[in-house]
Specification:
This protein is α/β, with parallel strands linked by helices. The chain has helices at residues 13-22, 29-39, 53-62, 122-126, 134-143, 165-176, 198-205, 219-225, 234-241, 266-275, 301-313, 334-343, and strands spanning 6-7, 63-64, 72-75, 81-88, 91-100, 103-107, 111-113, 128-131, 152-155, 188-192, 209-213, 252-258, 282-287, 317-320. It folds into 2 domains: 6-64, DNA polymerase, domain 1 (Orthogonal Bundle); 72-343, Aldolase class I (TIM Barrel). 33% of the residues lie in helices and 20% in strands. A 10-stranded mixed sheet has the order 3-4-5-6-9-10-11-12-13-14, with helices on both faces. It has a two-stranded parallel ribbon with strand order 1-2.
Length: 344
């Protein structure tokens, strides 16, 4: 069996400096490689033309850039495209491209499967298989045909980003480095259920926007929908968030899927107002994307509007997120689960 080549995509400068030392290349080649990978975004080592042919040939024996195209794409009638990426043998993740007038957003995955087991999410039913590396996270951004037109990135795909904090933060550093990909942190949002310790680390080490996957106004109800609540309570999270400033450019939002007869009453809305009282934030109400064999149901639009209007009247800026791509298995994990079942 031939040696598997290591991927350069996802390596930072210190790691590339190790590579050039091991390959007997001049030290300045590490910065040259950084520019080729992250600024010029080449797909082949052969294209790094200011590195000697001898060193490129030697490097190519052990390394590759590591940009891998999606293996499948599903196109929605509303313009949304869901891409399926093969990570390793038998392992798949999804990225979703969402065009919307002047915005073009990519929803990126951070894990194969997920450990959180939220009752409303298909990814959790897969179980957890693997953390993605920073390179595998960035590959979703690099490999789609629409990459050059992207205006926003959201870490809201498969997996819990703050359960893979090292690689996620590394990917965000490379993405926002002004000398590399130069993305503004204001164009990036990370969504999390909240992982104790790691949430504070993200807040301290990144300036990207934060979205908390909330979905219930009380710890008791949230624990029924989201087992992670039993480990890190939403009340603890809110206490932590109150220590940070969200009055400037950095945005804090809470995602709230409305489920029929579960969390959709005016009593629930009142509890939500009390929970978030005084916190500078916004609420995104989300329509439930049905998943197979789930007892949960969505709510009519008029009930969503009434819920939104109550929160807005009581000081919580609230929007109803437009539903996109339902005709292409838009819920997280639907397409990859289908692929896994077809291959089994």
């Amino acid at each position: 069996m031939s040696e598997l080549k290591k991927r350069l995509l996802g390596m930072d400068l210190s790691e590339l400096q190790v590579v050039v030392r091991e390959m007997g290349m001049p030290s300045f080649a590490a910065r040259q490689m950084m520019e080729w990978i992250y600024v010029r975004r080449v797909r082949s080592i052969a294209d790094m033309t200011n590195i000697s042919l001898k060193h490129r040939e030697a490097l190519s024996q052990h390394y590759e850039i590591g940009v891998n195209d999606p293996v499948e794409a599903m196109h929605s009638k509303d313009g949304t495209i869901k891409y399926l990426f093969r990570i390793r043998e038998g392992q798949f993740v999804e990225a979703v491209y969402i065009p919307d007038e002047e915005r073009a957003t990519l929803c990126v995955s951070s894990q194969v499967g997920c450990k959180m087991h939220c009752a409303f999410c298909m990814t959790g039913r897969q179980g957890f298989s693997a953390h993605l590396t920073a390179g595998e996270i960035l590959n979703q951004f690099y490999a789609i045909p629409e990459s050059a037109s992207l205006t926003n990135v959201v870490m809201m795909g498969m997996g819990e980003p703050l359960d893979n904090t090292d690689e996620v933060l590394k990917a965000l550093r490379l993405l926002t480095d002004p000398k590399l990909l130069a993305w503004s942190p204001r164009r990036i949002t990370l969504s999390t259920v909240g992982v104790k310790g790691n949430l504070q680390r993200f807040l301290d080490e990144s300036d990207c926007h934060l979205a908390i996957s909330l979905h219930a106004p009380t710890p008791q109800l949230r624990s029924e929908l989201m087992p992670a609540e039993r480990i890190y309570s939403v009340t603890e999270m809110v206490d932590l968030l109150r220590r940070y400033d969200f009055t400037g450019q950095r945005r804090l939002s809470f995602e709230y899927i409305l489920f029929d007869g579960v969390n959709d009453t005016m009593a629930d809305a009142r509890k939500l107002v009390r929970l978030l009282d005084g916190l500078q934030c916004r609420i995104n109400l989300i329509r439930f994307h049905a998943i197979p064999d789930s007892e949960l149901d969505g709510v009519p639009m008029e009930r969503m509007v009434a819920f939104r209007d109550y929160l807005t009247r009581h000081g919580l800026f609230t929007t109803i997120r437009a539903s996109r791509g339902e005709d292409i298995y838009a819920a997280c994990g639907m397409l990859s689960t289908k692929k896994l079942r077809n291959n089994s």
